[in-house]
């Protein structure tokens, strides 16, 4: 029943996203990033773990550019089997958004799903190895609710990563980032679904 509800909600949200022009999504992404930058959680973070967005997701390029500009370490996930691991791209050359495309940057590649990710020989970032640093992790999702529940795409990658991370350290904050129209009244959840600590949209912050 829960899986059916999730499937139905995912379909609804995907249709909402498809109905929005790319130009509008870019503007909303920039607003979301500015909301994120205003938080003490951002200002106090030593390292930002984020993702390279796909079509229809919040554009994370402004987040990556800002982190690099402010001298924060920046980690991007790479899929390893059924799990994700974050790799340090802090030394990446960034002048335009083209520098976040694999054909223009040797530190990035495309996986079998067509998702941009770092090459495997970059330094691995394990938050548990840095007790003196605080990590801000921006978590993607198709939908969130005000109880900070998250609806992912169904792969379970972030749920597994967060579950394991909690066993080894607490020096991190999980912030879901999404368009405001992805904020639902309620999101169906199962026992293995991990909550976030807060949510940032183009209109509001929920902490």
Report on the architecture of this protein:
- The chain has 207 residues and is α/β, with parallel strands linked by helices.
- The chain has a single domain, classed as Rossmann fold (3-Layer(aba) Sandwich), CATH 3.40.50.
- The chain has five helices and 13 strands.
- Strands 6-3-2-1-7-10-12-13 form an eight-stranded mixed β-sheet.
- The protein is globular and about 45 Å long.
Features:
207 residues; Rossmann fold; eight-stranded mixed beta sheet; 28% helix; 5 helices; three-stranded mixed beta sheet; alpha/beta; globular; single chain
Query: Strands of the biggest beta sheet: in what spatial order?
Result: 6-3-2-1-7-10-12-13
Which CATH class applies here? Alpha Beta
Assigned CATH architecture: 3-Layer(aba) Sandwich
- Unreliable residue stretches: none
Kindly report how far apart the N and C termini lie. Answer: 30 Å
Largest sheet: 8 strands, mixed
Radius of gyration: 16 Å
> What is the count of helical runs?
5
Query: What fold name stands as the CATH topology?
Result: Rossmann fold
**Mind telling me the CATH superfamily name?**
NagB/RpiA/CoA transferase-like
Structural class: alpha/beta
Q: How many strands in all? A: 13
Query: Helical percent range?
Result: 25-40%
Element string (H = helix, E = strand): HHHEHEEEEEEEEHEEEE
The coarse overall form would be: globular
Instruction: Determine the mean pLDDT.
Output: 94
């Amino acid at each position: 029943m829960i899986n059916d509800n999730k499937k139905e909600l995912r379909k609804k949200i995907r249709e909402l996203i498809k109905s929005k022009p790319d130009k509008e999504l870019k503007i909303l992404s920039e607003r979301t990033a500015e909301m994120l930058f205003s938080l003490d959680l951002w200002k106090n973070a030593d390292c930002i773990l984020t993702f390279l967005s796909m079509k229809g997701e919040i554009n994370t390029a402004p987040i990556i550019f800002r982190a690099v500009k402010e001298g924060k370490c920046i980690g991007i996930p790479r899929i390893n089997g059924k799990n994700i691991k974050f790799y340090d791209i802090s030394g990446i050359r960034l002048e335009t958004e083209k520098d976040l495309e694999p054909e223009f940057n040797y530190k990035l590649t495309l996986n079998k799903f067509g998702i941009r990710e770092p090459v495997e020989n970059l330094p691995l970032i394990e938050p548990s190895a840095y007790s003196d640093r605080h990590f801000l992790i921006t978590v993607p999702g198709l939908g969130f609710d005000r109880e900070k529940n998250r609806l992912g795409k169904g792969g379970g990658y972030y749920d597994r990563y967060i579950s394991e991370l909690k066993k080894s350290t607490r020096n991190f904050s999980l912030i879901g980032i999404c368009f405001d129209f992805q904020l639902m009244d309620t999101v169906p959840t199962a026992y293995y679904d991990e909550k976030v600590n807060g949510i940032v949209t183009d209109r509001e912050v929920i902490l």
